[in-house]
Amino acid sequence: MRFATIRTDQGTTAARLDGDVLTPLEAGDVGAMLAAGGSARERDDAPEVPATQADFAPVVTQPGKVICVGLNYRSHILETGRELPEYPTLFAKFAETLMGPRDDLVIPSVSERVDWEVELGVVIGRTARYVPREGALDYVFGYTIVNDVSARDFQFVTSQWAKGKMCETFAPLGPCLADREEVPNPHVLELRTWVNGKQMQHGSTTKLIFDVTYLVSYLSNLITLAPGDLIATGTPPGVGHGKKPPVYMGPGDVCRMEITGIGVLENPVKDA
After folding, report:
1. Which domains occur in the chain, in start order?
2. In whole angstroms, what is the distance from residue 112 CA to residue 3 CA?
3. Which of 218, 209, 115 shows the shortest CA–CA distance to 167?
4. Are 239 and 102 in contact (CB under 8 A)?
5. Among residues 54, 41, 66, 44, which one has the least CA distance to residue 5?
6. How far is Cα 228 from Cα 230, in angstroms, rounded to an integer?
7. What is the pTM of this model?
8. Cα separations (Å) of 116 from 31, 38, 126, 241, 260?
9. What is the pLDDT of residues 93-130, one digit of tens each?
10. Angle at 100 between CA 220 and CA 267, to 5 degrees
11. Residue 21 parent element (H or E)
């Protein structure tokens, strides 16, 4: 199944995506649905919504954790000039960075080097603590798309990356959460990014250094993962900062991302 969070006149609601139609459910968002056990009844007081007319919110609106993995594709590491990591490179984003798959991506007035990063997002389905790698996928509810937007002029001014990652609207998320029946193997997916119709990124999760099973197990040994928590698993090559000369997003651009079996993010870029 596929699930989404949509905005309505009464607020946000979780919805089941059946083909091109969204059926509202009795949960405020997909994260609330997962916290309640991973299912919800259809709402009697809300009509079905055509997907083309829906106002999509981030698929999880208030995750307890947004854990991001850097430097997780060999070819991306090479384009940055760094060495292959022995352990996952981790940083965090905040719920305020999340936005819907069609919302405006707003460039902070203090940044001139805003970059794209298409990533497979993993959403936890049940509480995970000290999980062995062999059973790690049992704790995953499903998968989505994350754009780990990055202000490169802030990211590298210190050894800590958070400054360039934490701006509002810097994590477009969605359009849906595809469960493990829809995406039974997260390690065979194609990821692509286009900016203004020009393809910038193309990669495959077959090239992950630390795959989903490793990451869920590793992270669960550091901190308890709860239903609705989001893990962004890293980006393949083709980021703007790695091009010669570098290329960054600006007002009027449109950033489009796609992952096999999940859907499309398409965010217009605007000034603050």
Report:
1. 2-56 (no CATH), 66-271 (3.90.850.10)
2. 35
3. 115
4. no
5. 54
6. 6
7. 0.97
8. 25, 31, 30, 9, 18
9. 999 999 999 999 999 999 999 999 999 999 999 999 99
10. 120
11. strand 21-24
